[in-house]
Design brief:
There is one protein chain. This protein is α/β, with parallel strands linked by helices. It has three domains: 19-67 and 174-242 and 385-423, FAD/NAD(P)-binding domain, CATH 3.50.50.60; 114-166, no CATH class; 245-377, D-Amino Acid Oxidase, Chain A, domain 2, CATH 3.30.9. It is 30% helix and 25% strand. The longest helix is centred in the N-terminal third of the chain and has 19 residues, at 86-104. The radius of gyration is 21 Å and the shape is globular.
């Protein structure tokens, strides 16, 4: 197959890419998923072994169609994650790697910092725990602020204490994904877009990925399928039923009008340690917008970005999964509160006013939404850490929610090292 070279400067063009590569070819490694993690994995493989024949397959006709382009745009510093976890290690490493990549490719990164704000005495213990995690994870420069020091930084934000995380940054992850894709192709990799993988079939020393656009053969497989990670894993190993992706939709409001200038940077609540969600917060964007949100409600479709979106297969899988029923019984009050804020704007505004009392409801206009692929175990527990499993000839990423985008290059490097160590040189 002739190699197609696309210059890295192409990364500033549209996200729509031609299918570069051909069905019917045989590759050393096929990567399922052209999001940040899949593309980061392909990039890392080609960096380590330039003569490797690598293809990235995706069911959409462009890269970064889902979680990679439907997120807050925050480069997380690594404060929240349990010391020693994959999340903690790969978030810190990944942020550094992504910032270097962005600098090399002319992608703006703004280090605006983050404030994690306690508004009640009951939150102070959890705030101190976060400071401890930041120190254990090697997050530099984190300091605790008094209420007065908080107001010096954010005059319109109320709170009794806060953590200031100066290294937190913002970036356009769509643009980052496009640059990853351009580098992959520039290094000889193939992008097979509009290639939804419907089955994975073993054939001797190869695996055949059956797609509507034709079969793709590979020696090794790395799956980074995001919202469909569990389904792809089961195509490779039908016994992989111990966890399931449950989609949670998060809606944002844009802050406009006179309220737009009330918050300067990133303002977050103290999160509930039993849940992997960070609560509603204020997020500055690289284009100057200010977003408020998100909530976290069960989506009725894995790609359900609107309240009315419904996919019967997705819904039936969720309802039929014992883990979700157990999770719902455990957190039904939290779920009811999130659902109420989703349908009642005044309730959403009331939550935001705990931090910014002068926020005017009329200055919140409904904005974008994202869907988080959250793995839930059969016992009803939320899978907190990144989950990566190895089978014969395949590696599957089964859970990689936030900070997956931040950590994408580090996750990609981790997967590439696992693959080359497990499968050996081409």
């Amino acid at each position: 197959m002739p190699k197609v070279t696309v210059p890295v400067s192409h990364a500033s063009a549209s996200l729509a890419w031609p299918a570069i590569g051909e069905s019917g070819d045989t590759y050393d490694v096929a990567v399922i998923g052209a999001g940040l993690i899949g593309l980061g994995t392909a990039l890392s493989l080609l960096e380590r072994q330039p003569d490797l024949r690598v293809a990235v397959l995706d069911k959409e006709d462009h890269v970064a169609a889902h979680q990679s382009s439907h997120n807050s745009g925050v480069l997380h510093a690594g404060v929240y994650y349990k010391a020693g976890s994959l999340k903690a290690r790969l978030c810190v490493q990944g942020k550094q790697a992504l910032e270097r990549f962005a600098t090399d490719h002319g992608i703006p990164v703004e280090r605006c910092g983050k404030l994690i704000v306690a508004v009640a005495p009951s939150e102070l213990g959890r705030l101190a725990d976060l400071a401890g995690r930041a120190a254990a994870n090697g997050v530099a420069g984190v300091v605790e602020l008094s209420g007065d020091e908080l107001r010096e930084r954010e005059p319109n934000v109320v709170g009794i204490r806060a953590l200031h995380v100066p290294g937190t940054a913002i970036v356009d992850f769509e643009r980052v994904a496009k640059a990853y894709a351009a580098v992959v192709v520039d290094r000889g990799g193939s992008l097979l877009l509009s290639h939804r993988v419907d089955a994975i079939i073993g054939r001797g020393h190869e695996q055949v990925l059956r797609t509507a656009a034709g079969d793709v053969a590979c020696r090794w497989l790395v799956s980074c399928a995001g919202l469909h990670a569990d389904r792809v894993a089961r195509q490779s190993d039908p016994s992989a039923t111990d966890l399931q992706i449950v989609p949670f939709r998060g809606d944002y409001y844009r802050v406009v009008g006179e309220s737009h200038g009330l918050v300067r940077g990133l303002v977050y609540p103290v999160p509930d340690p039993s849940l992997p969600f960070l609560g509603v917060h204020f997020t500055k964007r690289v284009n100057g917008e200010m977003w408020a949100g998100p909530n976290a409600v069960l989506a009725l479709a894995r790609q359900g970005y609107r309240r009315r979106d419904l996919n019967l297969r997705d819904l039936a899988e969720c309802v039929g999964f014992p883990g979700l029923r157990r999770l719902s019984r455990r957190y039904w009050r939290t779920g009811a509160q999130e659902l109420w804020r989703d349908v009642a704007k005044f309730a959403f505004v009331r939550e935001l006013r705990r931090y910014v009392p002068d926020l005017a409801g009329r200055d919140l206009v409904f904005g974008p939404s994202g869907v988080r692929a959250q793995a839930v175990a059969a016992d009803g527990s939320l899978v907190d850490d990144f989950s990566i499993v190895e089978t014969d000839g395949a590696i599957h990423v089964r859970n990689a929610p936030s900070p997956g985008a931040t950590a994408s290059l580090a996750i990609g490097a981790h997967l590439a090292e696992l693959a080359l160590r497990r499968f050996g040189p081409a």
